[in-house]
Amino acid sequence: MSEKVRETGSKAAFREMKEEYLRMLEDSIQDTKEIKRGDVVEAPIIAITDSNIIVNLGGKFDAYAEIGEYSEENGSLTLEVGDTLRGYIVDETAQGYVVGKSLTKQHVDKQAIRDAYEKKIPVQGRIYSVTKGGFNVDILGGRAFCPVSQVSLRPVDNTAEYIGRTLDFLIIECSENCRRLVVSHRQLAEVEAEAKRQEILGRLNEGDVVRGKVMRMTSFGAFIDIGGIEGLMHVSEISWQHVIKPQDQLKQGQELDVKILSIKEDKIALSRKALQDNPFIAAMEEIKVNDEVDCRILRLHSFGAFAEIKPGVEGLIPVSEMSRNRNIRHPKEILKEGDFVRVQVLRIDPDVQKISLSLKALQPDPWENIDEMVTIDKPFEGVVESSTSFGVFVTIAEGITGLLPRSRMRRADNFKSGDKVTLKVTAIDRSQHRITLDYIDRSPDEEIFGDNRFDRAPREPREHRDRGFRGRGRGGRDEEWRKYASATDAIADDNPFKDL
Predict the structure, then answer these.
(1) With contact defined as beta carbons under 8 Å apart, do 264 and 291 qualify?
(2) Residue 437: what pLDDT?
(3) 3-class secondary structure per residue, the chain
(4) Which pLDDT band holds residue 455 (cuts at 50, 70, 90)?
(5) Domains 105-192 and 279-362 in one fold
(6) If you ran DSSP here, which 8-state letter would residue 458 be given?
(7) CATH of domain 105-192
(8) Is 497 helix (H, G, I), strand (E, B) or coil?
(9) What architecture (CATH level 2) is domain 204-275?
(10) For residues 438 and 494, which has the higher predicted lDDT (pLDDT)?
(11) Has residue 355 got a pLDDT over 70?
């Protein structure tokens, strides 16, 4: 080939290379001409060097971020090539665009502060002192104020621990000349926490067993951190044994395995009890109906007392099953928490895991010898137990109570519990375990508003009849009398064992 031909070919190749370069440059300018400071970046990482993270902004243009900007507190970097880097365009240098998590001093001017406020770009700041209601913060070389409520997601107990800390902030107030700045770290933390929460929630499922850490406790349960998100373990889910306060079983900072019971929107219910063997199942192999067992009184309620038969296994002694000898209104009259008692098992409901117990069943029944203990028309000295709307209950002998009906009381009567009174028995109903009483010195001409038969209710006092008090007449008193007659079998409506 001649020298002339070779020269012509070289010039053509050069022109072609120049045209390609200009075309690439034009494409690059076209792709990046809209990029400006403050723009949000979500770009793939294409390389990681010793000091920088390189990302592609699209087209043929790359940007970089300093590794320190995206490292954890311990200095480790969790990002890898192929991950998406999120941040903001904070500057443009000879090497290209700079990406950061927030604006820093070397990339700022007054307009940049204004842009950060309007576009909600995070800015880096250092807390240097405490002031009234919050903190003084060095924001890009100027002073800003951060209210104490805006420095953390949690309440601040010790403001001194924040002095010297460098954090990212959002400018939430900015005067026209940018001299007055109010900033918030909390708003950024909330966004990050919610993003992390949603990420973790996506990995969790009901029924999962996870490792958790006790963060704080309240009267109703404990909040457990399960890897960056908190769930609630209700006090009833801590143990099969009855737990009054979470602090009795748990310690702050304690690590433990828990089971996820449910996930409903942003609420996670946890349980440690679900990972423990149910003691009721094992107890049912040992305990049968009519067995006598020793137990410890745990809690007293108006309807009865809960007793621990075995660790984690409880039974209820209804108030109606506490005594043959007394009309018990509340268990505290004969029991106190911590007492050890012997009881008989009345009923067991395995479906709802409830056991009904009785103290009364192990006590002798005085009505078996009622004829030896009580004689009709024979005077006796008794002790007033209580007064009701239909009469006064009086103890005749141990385990035997009679009723002085309201219709047979005298207008001057004012009985108090514990008063001694001399009366006589006028009627005995063995089937209903009811005894009617009357005075021994009643004169033949004394006015009586009824008689001593059980099937007749006391009449309304004359002064009530004369004044038109008819709303609580004979029907109402009959009902009260029937309530008394069935009181030995009655169980309060709020008793959880009422269906046994």
Answers:
(1) no
(2) 92
(3) CCHHHHHHHHHHHHHHHHHHHHHHHHHHHHHHCCCCCCCEEEEEEEEECCCEEEEECCCCCEEEEEHHHHCCCCCCCCCCCCCEEEEEEEEEECCEEEEECCECHHHCCHHHHHHHHHHCCCEEEEEEEEECCEEEEEECCEEEEEEHHHCCCCCCCCHHHHCCCEEEEEEEEECCCCCCEEEECHHHHHHHHHHHHHHHHCCCCCCCEEEEEEEEEECCEEEEECCCCEEEEEHHHCCCCCCCCHHHCCCCCCEEEEEEEEEECCEEEEECHHHCCCHHHHHCCCCCCCCEEEEEEEEEECCEEEEEEECCEEEEEEHHHCCCCCCCCCHHHCCCCCCEEEEEEEEEECCCCEEEEECHHHCCCHHHHHHHHCCECCEEEEEEEEEECCEEEEEEECCEEEEEEHHHCCCCCCCCCCCEEEEEEEEEECCCCEEEEECCCCCCCCCCCCCCCCCCCCCCCHHHHHCCCCCCCHHHHHHHHHHHHCHHHCCCCCCCCCCC
(4) very low
(5) yes
(6) P
(7) 2.40.50.140
(8) coil
(9) Beta Barrel (2.40)
(10) 438
(11) yes
Lowest mean pLDDT, pick from 54-68, 76-90, 154-168, 475-489? 475-489
d(CA 498, CA 500): 6
Mean pLDDT of all residues belonging to the chain: 79
The position carrying tokens 């406790």 is 217
Residues in the chain, total: 500
Q: What span, in angstroms and rounded, lies between the C-alpha atoms of 234 and 219?
A: 9
Cβ atoms of 79 and 53 closer than 8 Å = yes
- Asked if pLDDT for residue 45 goes beyond 90, the answer is no
Identify any residues that bridge with 262 across adjacent strands, giving them in sequence order.
Answer: 269
At position 373, the amino acid (one-letter code) is: M
CATH level 2 (architecture), domain 39-101: Beta Barrel (2.40)
More confident of the two residues 186 and 479: 186
Identify the CATH assignment for 279-362 out of 3.40.50.300, 1.10.510.10, 2.160.20.80, 2.40.50.140.
2.40.50.140
Band (187; pLDDT cuts 50, 70, 90)? very high
Kindly report whether the global pTM for this prediction surpasses the value 0.90.
Answer: no
Q: Is the pLDDT of residue 155 over 50?
A: yes
- Percent of the chain scored above 70 by pLDDT? 79
Question: Of residues 328 and 163, which shows the higher confidence score?
Answer: 163
pLDDT digits (tens, 9 = 90+) for 387-420: 888 899 998 887 788 999 988 888 888 888 888 9
Q: Give the 3-state secondary structure of residue 176.
A: coil
Distance CA 58, CA 42 (A): 10
Could you tell me the residue ranges of all domains in the chain?
Answer: 39-101, 105-192, 204-275, 279-362, 367-467+480-488
Quote the pLDDT of residue 127. 92
Q: What average pLDDT does the segment 175-189 reach?
A: 87
pLDDT tier at 491, thresholds 50, 70, 90: very low
